[in-house]
UniProtKB/TrEMBL annotation:
Species of the source: Pacificimonas flava
Protein name: Cell envelope protein SmpA
Top-level taxon in the UniProt lineage: Bacteria
Boundaries of every Outer membrane protein assembly factor BamE domain copy: 35-109
Pfam families, sorted: BamE
Amino acid sequence: MNSIKTSLGGANLLLLTVAASLTLSGCARIRDNQGYVRDNELISAIAPGVDNRESVERTLGRPTFQSQWDDSIWYYVSRNTEQLAFLPPTTTGQNVTLVRFDPQGNVAAVESREGMDQVAYFDPSSDETPVFGRDTGLFQEIFGNIGRVSSIPTGGGGPTN
């Protein structure tokens, strides 16, 4: 009888240990790297005036994105994040590498910018959306055009007899 109690106590202890380890494993910090995997040796191998678009793409791979207004700038972005359990992830660091090309497609400059100042935060669930222009109220929006629009067309274009 005594050996049965001891084996049940050991089973309870084992079950409690397994349950505690499973519970605590959910509280572990999750570290993640997003975007371009930065390699300083490869970036330093790119020489302005020597390399071109093709050699940069062979060395660093395709860029994360190109400039919207000027396709002569390539961006390689890498971001480190950390998450605790079910909380949303937070950015712990970001690095942006810019490769600028001249009109002939040769590398003009390589720049690296590192730090949290490179991270832009915005709240997509905000109650208000900032807009540029007039600040009008509801009634002004509804009744603001009264008297501004003419019902009589001006200029030619009508039928003539």
